Amino acid sequence: MNLYAKLQQRKENPLRIGLIGAGKFAAMYLAQVPKTPGIRLVAIADLSPDNARESLKRVGWDPAQYPHISDNWEALVADPQIDIVIEATGNPPAAVEHALGAFENGKHVVMVTVEADAFCGPLLARKAAEAGVVYSLAYGDQPALICDLVDWARAAGFSVVAAGRGHKWLPHFAQSTPETVWGHYGLTPEQARAGGLNPKMFNSFLDGSKPAIETTAVCNATGLTPAPQGLLYPPGSIDEIPSLMRPREEGGVLHHKGQVEVISSLRGNGEPIAYDIRFGVWVVFEGDSEYIRRCFFEYGVKTDDSGRYACLYKRWHLIGLEVGISVASVGLRGEPTGCATGWRADAVAVSKRDLKQGEILDGEGGYTVLGRLMPAADSLAAGCLPLGLAHGWKLARPVAAGQPVRWSDVAFDANSTAVKLRREMESSIAPGSGISRCDPPRREAASAPHAIASASR
């Protein structure tokens, strides 16, 4: 609760930041940087430096204050003037390379590209710890906010029954494609084009891929686990969450205590729910004694009808506008705002339709696959392909609609850095086991020649 005071103390010796990727999330963070004490943005690397400059202009930066901008991420992670790297490309294989490069150069990493964390976060956390740096999920995105609520509950002495996020969900959204997404959102294609909205990205939220990815990251960071069948998306208002998020034998929908779940903002008939949690996050905790339950009652805590289960929530999340919390926590305390502590869950690629041999997978939000949350042990045993790697590869055999895509179904590049890291994780981290701590003692960034010049990723 004193990050701001600590940042003020660093005005003369600011935390030095490098940003890789200058899209929407990054632009939101850039809007906050000039107003945050104790922070200096040293450099931006983006495949299109002009786009990075446009983002700075859009959010109101003075051109005289622009940081160094190039397309050379390797120079950025090697720059001795940088302490913390924010990875915000949204490209999972590239994000893995960027994180590993940052670790090698003694840089802490705030990982915005949660898709990368979903398929190899436990091993990234281990490699960061071995390098003596901090690896962190990005505050502002829902996984880190959920981790924060879970940590609050446990630190206050409560047992966490369930935690998760909200979502607009109906079962047929799972088959949505970039062509159908705007109708489900209530926009015309023309309105979407006028707003510069990316249909594939929006569809990755709608079809359940992003919820699967984000709850995977939450499980691996908090110790919560999925139900065997994955996410149920039960509909409910905020006030209904305590009643929904209790075990089935007590009238709820949970398979077990300590579960992740996603609450839908639509009833089964498509009717919008008033006072919904669509854009927010929540944690349900338990009053496990008569005295605590009486305290809930005395202080007006909304519970289920037994008085045992209560909920704390944030109704909205502010995306990149909040990532400065991660930067400050990592840079000032040496602590992540969420980081994998074990491999408990996986977001696997599942076919949206009957896929033919020779088809090319197009990744999350596309026409071929969607994400499904699975227990890590089940995914490993079945040889499932993680969603974050299900892009650009040719199918070696047909896959029926609704079936997981397996490693054996695709012709993948075994020499890809991301593939090698995932395969290493599969062979070196047993599902459900713990890994090294992800908040090691801080150390100074490694020395390297200062050269952020022209090169390409």
Question: What does this protein look like?
Answer:
With 457 residues, the chain is of the alpha/beta class. The protein is built from 16 helices and 15 strands. Strands 3-2-1-4-5-6 form a 6-stranded parallel beta sheet, with helices on both faces. Strands 8-7-9-10 form a 4-stranded mixed beta sheet. Strand 4, helix 5 and strand 5 form a beta-alpha-beta unit. The chain is globular and about 60 Å long. The two termini are 39 Å apart.
Shape: globular
The count of β-strands is 15
Gyration radius, in Å: 22 Å
Oligomer: single chain
- Helical/strand content category: alpha/beta
CATH class of the largest domain: Alpha Beta
CATH homologous superfamily of the largest domain, by name? NAD(P)-binding Rossmann-like Domain
Architecture of the largest domain in CATH? 3-Layer(aba) Sandwich
What value does the average pLDDT take? Answer: 94
Q: How many individual helices?
A: 16
Distance between the termini: 39 Å
Strand order, biggest sheet? 3-2-1-4-5-6
Number of domains: 3
